[in-house]
Amino acid sequence: MNKKLLLDKIDRKLLNLLQKDNLTPTRELAEKCHISQPTCLRRIRMLREAGVIAADCALVDPFALGYGLLVFLEVSLANQADEYMQAFEAQMKKETEVMQCYFVSGEYDYFLVIHVLDMDAYYQFVRRAISGSGNVRNFHSRFPMKRAKFATRILFDERPAELEVRQPKGK
Predict the structure, then answer these.
(1) Could you report the per-residue pLDDT of 136-157, keeping only the tens digit for each?
(2) For the purposes of burial, counting CB atoms within 10 Å of the CB of 15, is it exposed (0-12), middle (13-18) or buried (19 or more)?
C-alpha cells in the first residue's frame, strides 16, 4: 500500500521550479521560495528520498540528433499469462528503441512509444523484437504526423496550504 506524503506550498513551488530547470542554483531556488539555502537543500533531498523527484536528467531532443521516426505501437500477446507478460515487459525494457511501454486496457495489451532513425531501423526493430518474440499475436503501428504538444512537467497548484500525494511504492 502506498504511504501518503504531505507537500506544502514550498515543496510544490520547488517542484515547479526544478521541473522548469533542474540546474537552477540552490541559492536562487531558496530566494524564490523565501527559505534559507540549507532548508532548500534539505527539502530537495527529502523529495528525492521520498521518490517524488524520480531522476535528475537532461531531456535530449531525438529529432535534433536525426532520430526522425516516432512510432506508437499497439501490441497484442498470444499468451497473456502473467509469466509471458512479465517476459514481454522485461524484453521491452532492454530494447533501446522503446522509450515507453504501457500495459493497457482495451483491444491491445501494450502501448509502446518507439523512437528510431528511420523506417528501415523500425523495420529491423519489428523483425527482431516484435515479430521475433514468439508471443505477439498482432501489432498495429501508428505514425504521428505532427507533435502538437510534448511535456514532461507536472504542474503543482501552489495555493493550498498542503497537498496530500501518494508516495511511490517501495519508498
Answers:
(1) 999 999 999 999 999 999 999 9
(2) buried
Q: In whole angstroms, what is the distance from residue 9 CA to residue 96 CA?
A: 38
Q: What is the pTM of this model?
A: 0.84
* pLDDT-above-70 percentage for the chain: 97
